[in-house]
Amino acid sequence: MDTVRKPRKKLKGPTESESSPSTPTSSAVSDLVQTSTNIVLSHALNADAVEEIARITSSHATRAQPTGDKQTIAVGSARDSKGDRWLARVALLLNLTKSAADSADFSPLKGACEAVVTLLDSIQAVKDGQYAWIELLRAVQGHAAAFQRQLDQPGINDVLESCEESIKGPIRSYSTALQELIADICVSCGLDESAFGQGLTLNLLAQRIGMAKLEASIIADYEKRLKGAEGQIMSALMVYVAVSVNASADADVLNKLQGKEYTRPRECLTGTRVEILEECVAWARDPHSSNIMWIKAAPGAGKSAIASSLVRVLEIKKKCLGSSFFFRRSESAFTTTRALWRNVAYDLARHPTIRRHLAAKLRKEEIDLTTPNIDELFRQLIEEPLSKLSKLPNEQWPIIIIDALDECGGLEGAHSEDRRDLMETLLLWSKVPNCKLIVTSREEEDIARTFALNRPYIIELLTGQSTVDQAKRDIQAFLRENLRKTATRFSQPPVEWPAPTEIGLLATRANGLFIWASTVVEYVGRGDPKERLDEIVNGERVRGMSELYTTVLRGAFPDAEGGPPEKLRTILAVIIVAKETLGTRGLADLLGVNQWAVEHVCHGLRPVLETEGGLRFRHESFVDFLLETDTTYLIPPLTTNDCHGILAYECLRVMKERLRFNICEISSSHLLNGDVLKTLPSIEAHIPSHLQYASHYWMDHLRHIPASKMIMELVRHILEFKFLAWLEVASLCGFMDEVQSILSMLHTWLKVNGINDLVSLAMDMRQFIAHFSEVITQSASHIYVSALPLSPPSSLIRQRYQTQYPNTLVVTAGGYERWSPLLMTYRGHGAAAEAVAFSPDGIHVVSGSYDRTVRLWDAETGTQIGQPFMGHSDRVYSVAFSPDGRLVVSGSGDKTVRLWDTKTGQQTCQPFGHSGWVYSVAFSPDGHRIVSGSTDQTIRLWDPKTGTQIGQPLEGHTHIVRSVAFSPNGRRIVSGSDDETVRLWDADKGTQIGQPLVGHTSTVNSVAFSPDGRRIVSGSADRTIRFWDAETGGQIGHAFMGHAGWVRTVAFSPDARRIVSGSEDGTIRLWDVESGVQIGQLLEEHQGAVYSVAFSLNGCRVISSSYDQKIRMWDTEPDWQADRPLEGHTSKVNSVAFSPDGRRVVSGSLDETVALWDVETGKGMGQPLNANKQVVTVAFSPDCRHVVYGSHDPTVRLWDPETSRHKLFEGHTYMVRAVASSPNGRYIASGSLDRTVRLWDAETGAQIGDPLEGHVHDITTIAFSPDSRRIVSGSIDNTVRLWDVNTGTQIRRLFKGYANAIYAVAFSPDGHRVASGLHDRTVRLLDVETGNIVGEPFKGHTEPVTSVAFSPDGRTVVSGSTDRTIRIWDAETGTQVCKPLEGHMGDVTCVTLSPDGRRIVSSSSDMTLRLWDVDNESLDDDVAINRHCRMNDDGWLAGPNGERLVWIPSIFRVGFEQRGVRIIGRCRRLKMDVSRFVHGEEWTRVKDGGRVLSDYEG
Fold first, then answer.
1. In Å, what is the CA distance from 475 to each residue of 16, 336, 510, 515, 1200?
2. What are phi and psi of 206, to 5 degrees?
3. For residues 1102 and 1114, is the Cβ–Cβ distance under 8 A?
4. Residues 833, 846: contact at Cβ < 8 Å?
């Protein structure tokens, strides 16, 4: 009995949502491949399969491949016989597979399928006549040869090798079978196989075959052999499908690289530029030639036409792997260096090896496509992928064509950052393996300088007196061909027009410039051809480009009296300086004119204007002509400032008219911009392209012009009425990262133009962005929902706009009373920013980072200048400018010191350095020396010109040297070290001066001289700042204290009256040198340790760098009021307890203090106790008079807050982790890392009995029973043990099946149960008498449970966890009685309830305590923001379903208070009235009832 196997499960391919039009396998082809695979796998090629194939083919294959007629014939004949049916099935299946191979561009399978289909069709045809053997032989031989060629294609071996024999073997076997078939057919016909390739005619071959009279059995044998080969290839198809599916998925990822599509420039006319094109082809095929070709010429010589022709001639992206990119000055915003290398990488990914490499890197997010580091982008996208290719034959090298290199950077040209980026990456081309580069450009200085360092093969297109004859002949051919095409448009074209003499004259006047000839052709073709050609030929003055362009303009606009039409002048101006290419519709909208009017002008400009894909001039020489001061057509002549002025006005006008509230009709404030954009058919439907352009580039144009009355009216309107709406556009269109720079330019422009009343408003806008750019970048709606209401009352923005949006949050306590001094944030580093410094002139900032780069920034705008300085192979720890600002020195963990040229970013000499990490570097005041300090414990001096060491190392420190600095006169050096000393050195002699300066009790992280050289300041890990007399070495005054973490950096102000310090606690502080008092606001916007600080030249600003990867600029003007000192712990709070009367709370912290707090006011009671050790656990005595605590030592201490007396309990041998006071007040119990529980007499402090032993690991928690007769303890050994207080013996182990550490235990009020908190995230109840678990575990926490407590009535259990939540459980059912209590921004370390059960107190690693009112759950019923909302690390306060309610600035996240919660501790408070707060789908009601200001639209 025959059985039919069921098809196997389908291979998973890309879903419809994952596919895109540019993927190699479309959805239709995916269906075809999938279905054909199933049929192959089924091995059931019966009649039913034929019907299935026919059904699929009718719906898919006819539109996927061109052989539908053959399929129809085969299906039609499939029912005649068993053999015919087999032939039909195989033919159809192979045609189907071929369709997939066609679409996937998998050449070997395509070739194989074509061969088999042709052979099978031929075999069927043989039965109708022996003459068909001619076609059979022709097909077999042809396909065998073609198939073998395809196996030799570039990159195919990479695929075959990756698939191993599963596909490689069958394909090669099939190729062999075809070759053998040719031989056998020849032998059967009595022919020598070689005769077919030696002039044997097909007719003679047919005669021989006819004479052979082959039997049907022979044909059947051929069928059988083909069937065997076909079976093997079908098995290989399974592997192909997997490969193609992977390729499709890879293509989806690689779509991130694809840039904007564009049309190539026109190619050279056929038959022209032949010699040059042949020379290029010869170079490309020469294995010994340079890997760069530079085609250089003057403007208009036809470089772009040659480049475009080379794409075709070299078959780029067809047979030859490669890419082409055409820079356009008019599209400088899109044709950038970043776009170039992304586009090239996308094209190179056609090679499977490169495709897999890039796709894998992109999936893992190992390539940052947004990085400003173009060198790194080039390395990851181009250099690394090409290096993965196996050694390629020279003829298979990829070829990259870059046209119009000189147009990179737009009108700024060589001065643009983008152009500099490109030049730097081209310097790296010599390192690129297996690839050739063709560049065309004008010969400009920076390009020539770049190629001088990397010698290319040069082709120079000569013009003028040096014009070669071939160029003239090519121009003649071009003119003849195109002018005759113009003539053919007329019914009776003139005979012999144009005349050969006219062609010759025009070619001579072209002077080698193809652009001249091209412009003539365009001009002649857009009017009366004969009349216009005569005008050019007979016009003696129409010889150069300027005369020709004037003729073109006058011919297009002949009726212009006294100068060109104003619309023409305006349109020309816009096209010249536009930052992006605009279409006629966009240009008309931007100018506020009828589109027909724009099209009319553009039609007249067609001889010099391209319109396809946007308006741009055909050649940059026309722009040069328009901007020439002696251009006679434009009176007065245009200047770039005129052009910018026109665009500035139009941009401001469009913004005034079109900006409005909720411009994209955002449905919910819970959505981020990415979600919003997915719901829109297109953003242009809401923010049309001309409004996007105006909003993005208005300041780029405005900064070039002075302030006129008309312009100022528009600027004022935008600032006073449209600012928030403008931010919406910036947010949704993705240029928020540029807003800081835009406002900086605006602020400068207003000051320069004396618009003083708007200067302060612009400054306020800068501060608004500095504080809220993070949330505005993510969500446009939160401009109104979060940023505006959280701005300080003194903010001019808030004062101006808040009355329009009344239905929102109202800050009732805390928050920003005024803007913090933060001015701007510099973003770009990919890891911690370790070092920062101002340039001597204050214009630039340099930074060094853990990302191994040094970066240069514009101090005023915060924009990065050029590319990162690359070279270090480890973290950069220190940077400094030379006194003249021309050099930067850096020290790194790679043990080197490097010098960089600030103009070029290149190293000026070979690296030099130490045998250990280089932590600190500095220039001498005269710039002639560099000093460095290292982990090798030495200080070294270097000559910056040569990089050689000066003298011997300065030795004396006994540990790492962390910081070094020169004195102002350059004669001395100061150093700070891990050996806790500061030392002075004679810079000339290399000897230590005097004794070490001793006083710090930990590492000295930073040292600096005062500007007069008389004092030294030092900052230390002991959290203090100290001053020293530079002459005597004595300490001056007392240490400055205030930081809660290591002092990492210190610096003097230029007037020596202030110092600035940065700390591990994330804050920056300013100090008065004379008084030691902290002055001004605490600078605390950083979200990590502050590593470096520096004053600006005028002392008004401070720059800082931090672990949070950001560099921040701060205003330090002296009118800032000093902050009130914050009260509370300065480190993690480990333990907290209520006093038995419920009126006080005690807390213990890693900051080595124990503190008492008033429950009603939240204020501290008296001075905290300095325990001198990190405090781990605290508890009150039953009479409320004493506090017992354990710390990082083996002792237990009893503290009387009234008398400040201590009682010391000694006996443990390791740190005490837990303490408890018995309810009867007689005992104190303690648990320790020594694995024992000890009992103490509370009155005498004596240990009672022997240690309670049994635990085999650290004891983490203990508790007394309510009757004081028993103790319960929990341990990391996974056990809970019960002890008898009177006998000191273990009663039992409570439940022996734990497999997790126990972190918390607590007795129920009746003493019958114990609650335990476990590492496995559960709370479990244990029966004290039986030791068994009661009920099921309480599940809900997502991290280990650190603390548990029973309510006084025993009905509920409270737990705290490292998941930052507090949960309340029903003690009987184990269910949560309410939503988790959220608010802590760190681990919850301890929870306990007040004696009356109405409050919970919790402690956390966020350094705070929180008092929770749990007696009134109705507090949370009627408000959106309550205690169950979670504060995420990114600042979003999330509702119960994770919806984003409001964004909170970083400094207020810990101190954000909801109703029913009081925060105790050192934090910035924020309390809000949310009664009018609207959010979600109601968010647009934010403006309901708002006051509409005059002139406000929207």
1. 51, 32, 8, 10, 104
2. -65, -40
3. yes
4. no
Structure tokens at 306: 């040659």
| Cβ contact 1383:1458 at 8 Å | yes
Cis upstream peptide for 1168 (omega within 30°)? no
| In contact, 1140 and 1182? CB cutoff 8 Å | yes
If one counts the domains in the chain, the total is 7
β-pair partners for 833: 849
Q: List the one residue out of 42, 143, 140 whose CA is nearest residue 93.
A: 42
Residues 1482 and 1494 in one domain: yes
pLDDT of residue 523: 77
1249: number of Cβ within 10 Å? 12
Give the mean pLDDT of 1470-1478. 90
Tell me whether residue 1421 is in a domain: no
Same structural domain, 988 and 1091: yes
Q: End-to-end distance of the chain based on CA atoms, in angstroms?
A: 80
The residues, any chain, with a CB within 8 Å of residue 874's CB and separated by 6 or more, are: 852, 892, 893, 894, 895, 917
> How far from the centroid of its chain's Cα atoms is residue 150's Cα?
40
Question: Coil, helix or strand for 1327?
Answer: strand
Q: Are residues 882 and 930 in the same domain?
A: yes
**Among 1308, 1391, 1341, residue whose Cα is nearest residue 1294:** 1308
Please tell me the distance from the alpha carbon of residue 210 to that of residue 129, in angstroms, as a whole number: 9
Q: At 345, phi and psi to the nearest 5?
A: -60, -40
Question: Of 422, 441, 461, which marks where a domain is finished?
Answer: 461
Task: Say what the pTM is.
Answer: 0.67
| 1005 backbone dihedrals φ, ψ, rounded to 5° | -85, -25
**DSSP character for 718?**
I
For 1017-1029, the pLDDT digits (tens) are: 999 999 999 999 9
Q: Which residues contact 609 (CB under 8 A, 6 or more apart)?
A: 575, 602, 615, 616, 617, 618
Q: How far apart are CA 136 and CA 119, in angstroms?
A: 6
Structural domain range at position 446: 274-461
Number of H helices, E strands in the chain: 38, 68
Say how many C-beta atoms besides its own lie within 10 A of residue 353's C-beta: 20
Residue type, 558: P
Q: What is the pLDDT of residues 673-701, one digit of tens each?
A: 999 999 998 999 999 999 999 999 999 99
Q: What is the DSSP string of 334-346?
A: TS-HHHHHHHHHH
Chain-centre distance of CA 398, in angstroms? Answer: 29
* Same domain, yes or no: 503 and 581: no
Who's near 1461: CB < 8 A, 6+ residues apart?
1383, 1410, 1411, 1412, 1413, 1427
**Structural tokens at position 1449:** 């600035």
Q: Are residues 232 and 183 in the same domain?
A: yes
What does the chain come to in residues? 1498
Tokens describing residue 311: 């794409």
Q: Which of 594, 779, 714, 513 is nearest to 1447 (CA)?
A: 779
Give the H/E segment covering residue 1137: strand 1133-1138
d(CA 301, CA 286) in angstroms, rounded, equals 26
Strand partners, 1350: 1357
- The secondary structure element, H or E, covering residue 547 is helix 545-556
Mean pLDDT of 1378-1382: 90
- Same domain, yes or no: 1022 and 902: yes
How far is 578 from 572, CA to CA, in rounded Å? 10
Tokens (6 digits) for 1066:
């994330």
Sign of the alpha-carbon dihedral angle for 606, 611, 614, 620: negative
Residues 41, 137 within the same domain: yes
Sign of CA dihedral 410, 415, 418, 424: positive
Convert the pLDDT of each residue in 1426-1455 to its tens digit: 788 888 888 999 988 889 999 999 889 999
- For the chain, the 3-state helix, strand and coil shares in percent, each to the nearest 5, are 35, 25, 40
